[in-house]
Amino acid sequence: MTTQTTQKTYDVRTHGCQMNVHDSERLAGLLETAGYVDVNSVPAGDRPSAADVVVFNTCAVRENADNKLYGNLGQLRPEKTANPDMQIAVGGCMAQKDRATIVERAPWVDVVFGTHNIGSLPALLERARHNREAQVEILESLEVFPSTLPTRRDSAYAGWVSISVGCNNTCTFCIVPSLRGKEADRRPGDVLAEVKALVEQGVVEVTLLGQNVNTYGVEFGDRLAFGKLLRACGEIEGLERVRFTSPHPAAFTDDVIAAMAETPNVMPSLHMPLQSGSDRVLKEMRRSYRSAKFLGILDKVRAQIPDAAITTDIIVGFPGETEADFEETLRVVRESRFSSAFTFQYSIRPGTPAATMPDQLPKAVVQERYMRLLAVQEEVSWAENRRLEGREVEVLVATGEGRKDTATHRLSGRARDNRLVHFAVPEGAERPRPGDLVTVGVTYGAPHHLVADAALEGGAWSVRRTAGGDAWAALQDSPVPGKPAVSLGMPGVGRPAAAPAPAPACG
Does 247 score more than 80 pLDDT? Predict the structure, then answer.
C-alpha cells in the first residue's frame, strides 16, 4: 500500500535504556525539522506499510541484541526491495560497536551512525540518497551534547533531561563506557534552564538522566553538584515530581540522601544497581563496593525516607559464580527488600573483559539460578506491596501504563514511589486526564502493581488538575494525539567558564 500524503514519513524504533528513549526523541525532532512526518500521524487508511525512513536506535547491552536487530532488518528487506527509495538507518550502541559490520550483514541498510553523532542523521540520509551507497559515520567522542538538538517528546506531561553522558567506570561486564565514552557533564544552569523550559510547556515530572548521575560534577570539580542540582529542582515552581537514574553505589553520598529527603518534589524512589550480592563476584566485576556498604546505603536512605521504594539490577551467572556466591545474592535481595528488580542472565558481550574470563557457566545452571532469584524477588515484592494496602497514594495519571484498563474500567499511573497503580473511578466522579494527580486508596498489593479501588466503596478519591493534564488535553487534536510538537534544543556541555554566573538555587 502506498501513502497518500505528499510528505515523507519516518518511524523511529527504540531498544534499550532510558538514554536511548531520550535519544530517540532527539532523532524524531531532527527528522521533523528536516521535513519528515511521523508515520503514526498519517490516517490509518493512507498509512504506508513501511515509513520512507525507518531508524533503529539500538542497544548492545541486552541479551540477543544483535539477533533482534538483524531479525528486524530482515523483515524490512522486502519493503526495501519493493521501494528502493525507502531508507533504513541504524544508530545507537550496536551501531557504535559493530560499525561497518552492519552494512556487510545487511547491505540494504543506508546509514549507520553512532552514539556521539545522532545530530548527523539528516545529512547522512541525504548523502546516502545522493551517492546511492551506504553512509557509515562513527565518532569516537561527543562533539555536540544531544540537548542542543531539536526534540519531539513522547509525553506532554513528563520529560527526560540529560545531565551527563558517558561513564568513567570499568565494570568488566559492561560495554557502555566504550560506546558512550568518558563522562561529560552539562553545566547546572543549562540543566535547570531545560527543566524550566519543559515546565513552561506543561511538564510536571522530570527524570534526570546519566549513566552515573551521582558522579555529576566530575568535569567542573564539584563532588556535591548532584545533590545541589536536586535541591535546585525543588525551587522550580510548577515542577511536581523529580526522578533520576541511575546512581552507582560506590559514589552515592550522604548529601544526596539528604537532598532527596529535604526536597519535597524529589520522589521517594531510588534505583540502586546491586549486580551481585557476593563480595568476591563484585570484585571480579570491578564494582568498587561490597554488600555491606550496599546494605548500609539502603539503611541510610530508609532512615531519612522511610517510604522509599528501592529497585535494582542483578546479573545471575557471572563467570565463576559459585552456588555460595549466588546464595549471597539471595541473602542481600531478602535484606534489601527491593520493590522490584531488573534481573538478567549473564551472557557474553564481545569486547568486555568478562567475555574472556574462565569458568563461563553452563546455560542450564544460569537459568536454574535465575528462576530461583525471580521466585525470591517475587516473594519480596509481593510482601512489600501488601504492606501498602489501606494506605492512600498520590498517582500521576499516565497513558499506556495499564494494558487491561479498558477491560477493567480502570485508569493507571505511578505513585510517588514509582509503583504502578491501577485505580477505579467512582461513577459520576470527575475523570482525571493523563498528567493530572489523583489521591486513591490501595485495596490490594499484587507482586508487580497496586490496585486502588477504595473509591468504589466511598474511600479516598480526589483529583488535582495540573498543567500536565492541560498540556495533554491541548494536544488531543494533534496528528498524534497527546504528543508534543518539536521543541528547540538547549545549549551547553563541558567545563564552565572561569567565572560563570551562578544559578541562584544551585549555589
Answer: yes
